[in-house]
Amino acid sequence: MKAVQYREIGKGPEVVEIETPEPGPGQIRLKVTAAGLCHSDWFVMDLPADQYSYGLPLTLGHEGAGIVDKLGDGVEGVELGGSYAIYGPWGCGQCHACSQGRENYCPHAAELGITPPGLGTPGAMAEYVIVDDARHLVPLGDLDPVETVSLTDAGLTPYHAIRSAQHKLYPGATAVVIGAGGLGHVGIQILRAISAVTVIAVDLNEEKLALAKEVGAHHTLISGPDTADEIKKLTGGLGAETVFDFVGAQPTIDTAKAAVAIDGVVHIVGIGGGTMQAGFFATPMGAAVRAPYWGSRSELREVLDLARSGGVDVHVERYGIDDAVEAYAKLHKGTVRGRAVVVP
Ligand code: NAD
Ligand code: 9ON
Ligand code: ZN
Ligand code: ZN
After folding, report:
1. 266 confidence band (pLDDT: 50, 70, 90)
2. Assessment of whether the complete model's pTM goes beyond 0.90
3. Closest ligand 2 atom to Cα of 293
4. Are residues 6 and 134 in the same domain?
5. In this structure, are 197 and 88 located in the same domain?
6. pLDDT digits (tens, 9 = 90+) for 325-344
């Protein structure tokens, strides 16, 4: 089968021919219908050899969907021929967090060598993918897999961050979204769909801000050293009750810190390497900072239901598997509008 793999440090993704995998006991094989590209793939592929821990070759694709085409021994509750989305942050399945479906916070996954598809385990950017357990599949039903595959990460991650800040999303409050790319443009829609907050979108790129406006941002600002002052002006000097930073670089975290209101919350979602100091003299009174990771199994169901009811609509650029390298190059350059999705 064809697969998009990262094979050599520094060389970027390649389209290669590899053996089609067979499902072992308890596993499920999907014929992939769609696989999304995430900026984290570039975080991984840009790591120097001494910091790289994902194994080589690595079949990419941690946003995946497919049709069940073969069941391993003992699999129950999964329909052959059914269309499913893959829940990516796999955990041990047994601990307190996993029992709640919050496998994204499983404290045992690392020690047990459990890694998400596309981030250690062979991913979905291939003609077939193996899923380790039926609990990691969510039925898509009538949802178009290409239009919705990115909800497994670009939807689930902002949904998880936003839901945890629900108490700060009251009418009259302001939410800032920094980075209106794959995650950000879905995050804006989630904020609009589940709350009455005013949304301010911030990006470096005018085209991304145009998309932000199109999907529901009330205000857009070009990212720079004065952004926090502009947010203060738009909020009558108070700042924003929530800031979702989908970049996470030092300049955007500095903006988030300067823009957050008293008793507000900053969510550092992007993995741009920046840090935020919190403390009595460093942050406004009561302000909190959080670095959320992906989302829970039930939240994936909720975000798919939100798509079903028309609350979110991912802006998708489609690519064939042979064009995956070109799609990754566009993502690296920052010229993907919404999310790039490979359709094998
Ligand atoms: P993307 O490339 O689609 O979007 C990033 C956006 O940020 C682009 O629109 C870009 O123009 C904008 N941007 C870059 N620098 C900026 C700056 N200084 N100020 C304002 N905007 C800026 O990326 P994505 O796939 O949406 O991922 C976003 C980030 O989230 C990445 O760092 C990714 O690795 C991370 N991520 C984290 C999690 C998690 O669980 N915490 C999950 C998925 C992705
Ligand atoms: O899901 C993603 O995009 C992030 C959280 C992956 C980060 C990583 O390297 O495991
Ligand atoms: Zn991702
Ligand atoms: Zn666990």
Report:
1. very high
2. yes
3. 5
4. yes
5. no
6. 999 999 999 999 999 999 99
